[in-house]
Every structure is written in C-alpha cells, then in structure tokens.
C-alpha cells in the first residue's frame, strides 16, 4: 500500500482490510417523466448553491413547491416567485420544529413563543410545519455542516426527500471530495435506518439535465449518484485509472503522447524517480500487495517475503492470476511458470527488478 503501486488514487484503511473505490455505470433509466419526483409544500435548501442546486431550487419553485426557502442568497434566484431567504442553519432547523394543528391552524412551532407544543391538542393532530403552515417535503444540503445540522430534525419530521449535492469533481478527489464522502456515508446510513437520502455529485453543461437525473434517482431510491460528462483522458492522466476501470467510456483513454495511461507507466515512473537502493522494496511491495489481494489478506505485510507461495495458500490457478496481475501492473513479461522458478515473494521481486533494469 505504502509503495503507491496499488494503482489506486485513494485507499481506505479499515480494521477489516484495505478498500478501494470504484465508479460503476448507473443502470438504464426507464422512468417516465411523469413518475419522477415532484415537490410540494416547502423545499428547504441549506448552504451556498452551485449551478445544479440553483437550478433545482428554480425548478422546484416552478413545479409544485408552495415555497422554496434558502439559507443564503443565490445568484439567479433574485425575484424568483416563491423563493425566499431565511438566513442561517438555526432558522432552517426551525422550519422542522413540531407544531400542533388545531382546526387547520398551526399552534406552537416557529413564531409562537419560540417553541412547539409537541403534541395533539383539542380537535387537532400533531403535524410538522414551517412558519407559514406548509409541510417541509424536501431538504437539500450543500455542505457537511448543513447536513449535520438538519439530518436529525429531518428524520424526526419524517421529511421524505433529503438530497446532498456536490460538484462532480468531488467524486474523483477534486474540490469538495471530503464533503461528498461524508454525504455518501450519511446517505447510506440514513437509508439503512429507513430515512431515504441521496448524495449526488453533479456537473453537466446543462444544469437542467442534472436536475432531471436527480429526480429520477429519487424515484428509483438511489443513495449515491454521479452525473457528469468528464474529460476521461484528463482523469486518467491524474491517476484515476483504477477508479474508472468499470466505466466503458473511460476504457482505452490515451494521454497526450498517444500512449495508454496505465499502471505499467506508473511503475516505470516510480522506479525512475526513486533512489536505486529503494527499487527492491518497491518491487517487493508490488509482489506482496498482489499476493495479498489474491489471498484476500488485509495488508501486503501479511505476506511473508521469504515464505513459499504454495505454503502461503497459492494454487496453480492463483499462480497464474499473480503472473497476470504482475504483467498488467509492471509491464514486464513474466513467464507463466515464474512462480515455480522464483517460489518466494523476495525471489520473484529480485527477478522482476532484474527484468525491469535490463
């Protein structure tokens, strides 16, 4: 892992092992337009709005929401009918304060002594309302702070739609990556607890297309989604080969020199950029890392460098898989029977290094 030759741009080290992320194509969407999510009541957007979130607010205001409440002013929404600004997360959370509805009128809650009654009154029933009597039906959080602040109140209020948008570049480690990782984890946790949520990294030339994809995702019950049309070659050049390996459109992308951007190129660059006395440890790290992956061990260090592969649990099929992995990762033509001629990780690494330097 520490050698950097896993081919991964990001790794998560957990007690149960080392994990890597993959982007996968979303399944075909056959949802008719009429069955996509449509808002009603109050839609609350907390945090600064990018183009996608701004378009989502505009669309909600024009397609069924009684009103759209923002915690911050947003460029392009000035004067938009039905859009208001109620600054701050505390004010936003107050929209999710319980009130009692008596004969159709809210009693307690925001604006009534600063608190809600929290229970049913005479001839009334409990409800969750905003300050103007409209139920909050959707919460959109664009920052981790907003998501943390509104997650609990939204759960208690039973808000059916909880969306956390981020820029598309956040999905592959760009600006906003930390927030998007939090969004994705929260969406999984909320959904598992019976409170649906969607973390979406969006970035399309037409924000309206992203909004349509979000609506479909909400209808489908998705938890995480990336909506983007990126420069695949640039992402490959930035080292995201493994992250994108299951995306057909990203396969076979070339860099500016016209050569395939692959793990073998990264291996050669690492050797050329490293002191000679580190070369053996680098190659040994590759061998142990791939062997650990085949044996489903949590870390490369679990593979003893002087233990024979077959004593470690390798089969003949596993030996072939190791050979294929090393060819792909290093670009070195490893013989099919190399594991028999060089039966330990240390010996095989010495052989690979000699081949790489020849």
UniProtKB/TrEMBL annotation:
Residues 281-356 form the Carrier domain. It comes from Nonomuraea longispora. GO terms for molecular function: fatty acid synthase activity; phosphopantetheine binding. The keyword Cell inner membrane does not apply. InterPro entries: ACP-like_sf, PKS_NRPS_Biosynth_Enz, PKS_PP-bd, PP-bd_ACP, Ppantetheine_attach_site. Coiled coil: none annotated. This is Carrier domain-containing protein. One of its GO terms (biological process) is fatty acid biosynthetic process. SUPFAM superfamilies: ACP-like. Pfam families: PP-binding. It comes from the Bacteria. Keywords: Phosphopantetheine, Phosphoprotein, Transferase.
């Amino acid at each position: 892992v520490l050698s950097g030759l896993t081919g991964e741009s990001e790794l998560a080290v957990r007690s149960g092992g080392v994990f890597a992320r993959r982007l996968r194509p979303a399944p075909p969407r056959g949802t008719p337009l009429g069955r996509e999510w449509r808002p009603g009541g109050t839609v609350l957007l907390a945090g600064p709005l990018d183009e996608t979130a701004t378009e989502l607010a505009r669309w909600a205001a024009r397609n069924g929401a009684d009103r759209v409440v923002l915690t911050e002013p947003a460029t392009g929404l000035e004067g938009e009918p039905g859009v208001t600004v109620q600054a701050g997360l505390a004010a936003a959370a107050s929209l999710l304060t319980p009130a009692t509805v008596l004969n159709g009128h809210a009693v307690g809650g925001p604006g009534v002594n600063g608190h809600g009654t929290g229970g049913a009154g005479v001839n009334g029933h409990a409800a969750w309302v905003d300050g103007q009597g409209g139920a909050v039906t959707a919460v959109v959080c664009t920052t981790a702070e907003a998501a943390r602040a509104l997650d609990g109140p939204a759960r208690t209020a039973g808000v059916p739609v909880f969306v956390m948008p981020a820029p598309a570049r956040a999905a592959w480690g760009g600006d906003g990556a930390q927030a998007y990782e939090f969004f994705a984890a929260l969406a999984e946790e909320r959904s598992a607890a019976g409170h649906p949520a969607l973390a979406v990294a969006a970035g399309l030339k037409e924000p309206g297309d992203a909004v349509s994809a979000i609506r479909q995702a909400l209808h489908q019950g998705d938890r995480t989604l990336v909506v983007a049309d990126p420069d695949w070659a640039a992402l490959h050049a930035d080292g995201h080969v493994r992250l994108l390996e299951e995306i057909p459109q990203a396969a076979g992308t070339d860099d500016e020199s016209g050569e395939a951007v692959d793990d073998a190129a990264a291996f050669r660059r690492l050797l050329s950029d490293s002191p000679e006395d580190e070369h053996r440890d680098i190659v040994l790290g590759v061998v142990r890392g791939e062997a650990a992956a085949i044996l489903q061990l949590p870390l490369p260090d679990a593979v003893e460098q002087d233990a024979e592969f077959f004593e470690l649990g390798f089969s003949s099929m596993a030996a072939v898989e190791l050979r294929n992995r090393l060819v792909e990762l290093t670009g070195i033509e490893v013989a099919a029977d190399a594991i028999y001629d060089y039966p330990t990780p240390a010996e095989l690494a010495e052989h690979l290094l000699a081949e790489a330097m020849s």
